[in-house]
Structures
1.
Amino acid sequence: MGAAAGGGRAARALRLLLLLVLALAAVEYLFGSILDASPLRTYLYTPLHNATQSTLRTSDKTSQVWPKKLTPSATIENSLKNSSQKVAFSNSTNKNNSSRDISNMTRQNVSEDFSTPLLITKIMEGIKNLVTTEDGELKVSEPSLPLCDEMPSDLGPISVNKTEIELDWVEKRYPEVQVGGYYSPPNCTARHKVAIIVPYRDRQQHLAIFLNHMHPFLMKQQIEYGIFIIEQEGTSDFNRAKLMNVGFVESQKQKPGGWQCFIFHDIDLLPLDSRNLYSCPRQPRHMSASIDKLKFKLPYEDIFGGVSAMTLEQFTKVNGFSNKYWGWGGEDDDMFYRIKKMNYHIARYKMSIARYAMLDHKKSAPNPKRYQLLSQTSKTFQKDGLSTLEYELVRVTRRHLYTHVVTNIDERS
Ligand code: BGC
């Protein structure tokens, strides 16, 4: 009996000991270092950067990534200061990613001062504006603004002033336009990035009127744009289409990231309604459908001349314009055939919106070869256009209200 009682006590003592060991192990597992808790730690702290690799890489290369002169928290403070004018960004995926960023960042880099929920929220806002540059440094990005309205509310019919004016005077009127003729809305993120390509020669009196009309017109539409005046040097016949190809290539070189939409624009046409949005829809758009000098009537259904809009993709798919139309006429019809051949169709605003005023000028001599060239377009357009474009770039100058590209296109490609 005594032996049985002694055995029972020993068993209880053993169970107690076992429990004690288990409890200790649990404590160590959670707080200590005896057991390997790395899977748990990994789960708690490390995977977060994967979801945000494109905007923020901090977990594995912190010392290389932070700017050397600033401590991480100084950088964050910096970004907080900079983010104070910012408007919140919109999509929920970003929100999630950013909150993941901050949990990672807070643990690794942020001092005790940032421990309150309010400060954490502020830091999160700051971190949304940090981006990793190509050379691996973190810097503060521009605060993201809300998207501009698709159709700003104060658009409608406008008048045109055809009186001759001095370019110097026009330049003083639009200080908000940046050098090169660039503009992007200050209070919202533009939906469209548009290059306005204007073939040009000997039309100085038109240039000032054009810029004086177009800048306020485009600014009102809240788009990001640049105006490119592409001047043909020399005395050969004017080649509007080839100049537009040059304008397409050269304007693209001027903008990091490039333009998405191209408006090919005669300098003598001025839009009469600001609802005529200078953007690029899914189909190439003929903009100048309704011109005062043509009694506001469309001359023929397939016309694509005057002012037209094409996306980067549309323009490259049709191989740009032909380079072969020297003298007046035909090059726009040629573009129409290319568009049709690539299964696009022409879009237009209604005639009450697509209205333009035409400035006076001498009529140029029509190109007698245009019909013969047009009869070949459908068969030859892949071998005549952007793919065969050759020109000499004489100079590119960024003036206040436009980028001036002077080119010698005489090489008959
Ligand atoms: C020409 C086009 C021009 C149109 C309207 C056509 O005959 O080929 O280039 O745009 O007339 O003037």
2.
Amino acid sequence: GVGTDTILQTRDLRKQFGGLTATDDVDFGIEEGELRCLIGPNGAGKSTFLKLLTGRLEPTAGTIYYDGEEITDLASHERVSRGISIKFQVPSIYPDLSVRENLRIPLQRVEQPSEFDRRTAEILDRFHLAETADETASNLSHGQQQRLEIAMAMTLEPKLMLLDEPVAGLSVEETREIAELLRTINDEDDVAFIVIEHDIDFVETIADRVTVLHQGAIFTEGTIDEVRDDPDVKRIYLGE
Ligand code: ADP
Ligand code: MG
């Protein structure tokens, strides 16, 4: 659900790659517990914007506030420690380790060793991974790998999750599973989300609100219905 407090806000956030402005003075805010989708044509600047939020890219100018504090100059791992979780297109799991061993890695950061087994069992169960616990991660299906990665992120009890195209390359069934998972995490754990996604049906299933980026700037924001039926939005997708 949508809370009343802002969890993340950018002010005049800008990223230049030489003469190219990939992020053009963006003022973007989302509320605690909100699930926001970020859409826009190829090259609109979606991934760049997300990388600025994660700390993977340094802005040319502007400010990022998170949970009441400025985080513009914080390293990625410090942002993660404060509850920003990051998931990119390529699953960042450890392919040679088992599912259980993968979960152990983030758990070591937050739990006492005596709690590992109990917490691992809880997470395996919640993310429907119990049957695969001792499987090598590289043997999992693509959808299971995505679920494992989200499970690993959830061990850190984030307040905000950033996902770049989480269902790209997934089957219809796997996409439905991820949609349900994100909605459940959003509802039950009150985690806010910023999700970049192309699949408009997926966006319709999960989003509270949608932000459309175009040429590095916010083009429009609204509910999925408002945005999808906007003739100007259709126009930018057609490249006119
Ligand atoms: P989107 O994710 O919406 O498709 P991107 O954020 O990947 O868009 O890219 C926005 C613009 O910035 C594009 O014109 C892209 O070519 C450019 N760009 C992205 N990353 C870099 C980079 N590391 N160096 C130079 N240009 C880049
Ligand atoms: Mg992208």
3.
Amino acid sequence: MSESVTFEPKYRLDYQAPAFRIHTTNLTFELDDHATRVTNSMELERLGDDDTLTLDGDDLELAALSLDGVALDAKAYQRTKDKLKIFRVPKRFLLTVVTIIDPARNSSLEGLYKSAGTFCTQCEAEGFRRITYYLDRPDVLSVFTTTIHAPKASYPFLLSNGNCIEKFETGSIQTVTWHDPFPKPAYLFALVAGDFDLLEDSFTTQSGRVVTLQLFVDRGNLPRADFAMAALKRAMAWDEQRFNLEYDLDIYMVVAVDFFNMGAMENKGLNIFNSKYVLADSETATDQDFINVEAVIGHEYFHNWTGNRVTCQDWFQLSLKEGLTVFRDQEFSADMGMRAVKRIQDVRIMRTHQFEEDASPMAHPIRPDKVLEMNNFYTVTVYNKGAEVIRMLHTLLGETGFQKGMKTYIHRHDGQAVTCEDFVRAMEDANDVNLSQFRHWYAYAGTPEVDVDYQFDSTTGSGSLTLQQHTPDTPGQSNKPPMHIPIRLEFVNAHGERIQVVSEHAPVELIELTERRQVVHFSSPEEKVIPALLADFSAPIRLRFEQPEDDLIAILNGAHDAFLRWDASQRIYLNALRNAIRQDDSVELSERFIDVLETAIRNQNTDPALLSLLLQPPSEETLAQEYKVIPIAAATRVVAELKSLLALSLRDALLARYAATDWQQRSFNGNAVAIRMCTNAIAQLLAYHHEDEVILRELDKQFSQSNTMTLAMGALAAAVHAEHPAAERYLAHFADQWGHEKLVMDKWLAVQSSAPGSGTAQKVELLTHHPAFDWGNPNRIYALLATFTHNLNQLHAEDGSGYALIEQAISRLNQQNPQVASRLLSPLLKWRSIPEPQQTQLKRTLERLQTLDNLAPDLHEKLSQALA
Ligand code: ARG
Ligand code: ZN
């Protein structure tokens, strides 16, 4: 039976300022696997008249409690499951709480936990309450001093936030004290104790502060840490140049741990990272891994200002720090090279995962209004759509105006816990603009749809674009007002040359769509004028604009903006896929389009990275977005058919281009990366020719002779996804070679669970018993099982095997690690868009999950939302 009565959501509008201040927090940890003793002494100040102090706590054993040095008797306080109330407290007082916790039994990886011999913490969002009783909310900022005691032999490094102020040994026990001068909320607290290899470097800030940089990795992994260290220095320099923001402590530490629920955490002065976002060398990491390391290192570093110095008032404001920081890390990556590719990759994330979330039962605005389990809101909506909203501000205000707004924001709010509203107001005030309508982006969920109607009369030289917008209803929100949508655009003529058109003497380059229906008139002397809308994906919307293939090809050849050119190719592919599904016939591409591709492939001047994107048709998940009820089997069929058609029609050109690969080139630089992207994209297509001896030889060569993980993985993935007969041989060889490298074996697990062929669920089930897999490690679960939940065809297999596999995994993880369980659940929530007979099976699966014993709030929230 589900006990929904015990789950109480919180509402954004119920926010109340804290009733107490915690001036200082003095923590002492006596580390022990099963009985770590935490002594927490806080200098508190009561702000109002209510003299009851209510602290948060979760799963804590209380060992002692005293106020101003006097132990409290039982009548002076009250304990419930998740609160500690202390009655009749004075105006200012010192409260000391001693708790005992069990880090070795903590499998949720929230709070203080021990894994693989290391103690570490994860406190965002509400993990600190699993360490001690506290005002565990982001608007309570305190100065922390942390003392750690532990046996030196097992834990030579004892780390916490800020500066190390004392260190000594008593027998075998080492004691280290850290002091963080910057007041911070508890979610930014961190502690690490373990044995590591240490990579040390330094960075001198623009004002001359010499910062010690320390990177802690598992013993033996030092050579794999160089890239992350270099990326950190690039990030520090970039934030000074582009945002004029400089680091503020004398030490910056990054620790890589193997057991971590998320990517990384920006704890003040002591970032804790999932090791997959730190460790990278060309033998074991792909180029994409390198790119991810740089992005995440940047992201956590950039939080020092956008998140730490200026933090969130409450968790509903999460996008204040995450949307902004994602925008900043995206710009950092773009400025480090391959801006266009980075943008297109970010757009792909939006269009597949974020648009899907916006259409799901868990749809929420970037600033949610109602939250049951905060961990459920670290989403592509809050992060990536949040970043798109910041990007739109950047588009509307320009780089100069945006930076003026940033300056006002930081200046006004340094040291404060603030809201999204404060951010928008800073942008408004600094630029003297009115963003009232723009604020809707924070308030409304769902992906706005913009329909376009286009007319051009060459005899009069006048044309018009009619735009109509509508945002679909989402749970709890209907009849939404029109949004403020910046639509960048270009025009090309019939020869695929970029042209300018004018409206009232000004070139038409940006339309600010604010009405439900808006008409833009323009004039041009050209014979033919083809509009190309949404340059740089200037707004997170769905654009509905049917343009003939000839026009799309003109855009593909002539638009200046790389996103527009790529998008034209994707629209051509999508049309071909949808037609084939509609007519229940094989996929067709026009000769004209094939010619365009062939020319691009044969032209040595075509940027190989952009070419690789052109050669990747939309995924099944992207195609699925086009349907209310997803024709799953047909979608899988036509996507595979399209790739094999491309391989067939372009075989010789592809092989010629492929031959240009330099198999010995290993370095991670823009050009080498671009060429490898292209090589892999070509392999993904050619592998559909199962009988072709030449291709088999090439794939074999790529798999075994290239000495980069990028190319080896490229060949392996190509073979597995195209169900090429060489796949089994490659898989076996790969496992032999890399069996001892956990992060590498994650790739091996993931490639198998994303295979389209039938019986994948059974194979994945078998792999859960393979030594490379571990139910206790989130990386393994994400690689094998979360990847499987995105395998549209096999997750929704008609025999129910996909659902059974994931149901079993979620049941097992419900209590062990609810955050991970909850991530596996998300792709199952869209049961209403799955055809029968699977729809009924899926719904039953969700209903059964709802009856799990001790159902975690993370799962309860999603299930009740989906089944409502
Ligand atoms: N603030 C971290 C980051 O984005 C993520 C923390 C995620 N925590 C969580 N409980 N889901 O950099
Ligand atoms: Zn973040």
4.
Amino acid sequence: MDTILVIGASGQIGTVLVQHLQNQYGLNRVIASDLRMPQAFSGIFESLDATKADELAALVRRYRVTQIYHLAAILSANGEANPIRTWEINMQTALNVLEVARTQNVSKVFIPSSIAVFGPSAPAFDTPQQTQLDPTTVYGISKVAAENWMHYYHVKYGLDVRSLRYPGVISYQSQPGGGTTDYAVAIYHQAVQGQDFTCFLSENTRLPMIYMDDAIRATLELMEAESSRIRVRTAYNLAGLSFTPAEITAAIQKFFPNFRTQYAPDFRQQIADSWPKTIDDQAARNDWEWAPAFDLSRMTEEMIHHLSEYYQ
Ligand code: NAD
Ligand code: AKB
């Protein structure tokens, strides 16, 4: 019987992933942990600073953890405010997780990567699995390093590490934590509240995105796949959908014809310009049969439906 530790459980993805894991494994088999306690929570929650290796090791021992989902990180936009601190947090937490997994016989580890590993040298359209990685953010640099460390632990110690290069994740259940793709969540909140939106990216900035349902399903499918099928031990490219601020505005206008977006690009524009526009995820499709389910119109319908209930 597996016992699962989720680190960074109060964040955008962790909030939703923990609920799915609890449904699958049971409330008593999932240990949610974070620096900050969520507002409402059912199940086991432990306060944890994952930069502290001893605290992490004690938790893994106490609960006899067999799988770790390590989601704690400082994201692309917030990371630029303090690059050295971002590097320290992102790298130290990832290394602590790999080391505790190695020394305490944790059977499987998931540490997500990001489309932020790519930089200006990668092809912008259908960005391939294997290409030059020259990220321009400290967040991207830390993700490339973490991918290489995961590969190292797999080859050197046989650790079963798995990872996805998530695109920007879009959710109604939780707020994003300081990235360059955050506008694509904020825009729905504004529209549903009857307000116009000011976008920090320009109208034709195309970025890869994914709806939360697809992101969670991809994560669980990857983690459930037979180990022999996982041929990429850095991180798999993952595609959901791709759109520009102008296109998401048009999709929202089908529900709210008077909704308008203004454009006021800031420092995040440069980050977005260095990232892919569309992703080639053939390796994930081939190896563990990944296929996304949500396009822009289906996602928009669901986002507006759920957020309308929330703001009622
Ligand atoms: P988030 O910022 O919403 O949540 C991260 C959580 O980590 C926060 O709750 C924070 O309190 C916690 N945390 C930070 N430092 C910690 C520490 N030292 N110890 C314990 N907890 C700590 O991030 P998210 O969007 O949920 O992303 C989760 C993972 O997925 C990250 O690794 C991120 O890089 C990756 N990712 C996310 C996206 C996205 O669009 N959300 C896209 C690509 C990759
Ligand atoms: C960000 O914008 O930093 C994240 C990501 C794509 O990694 N959403």
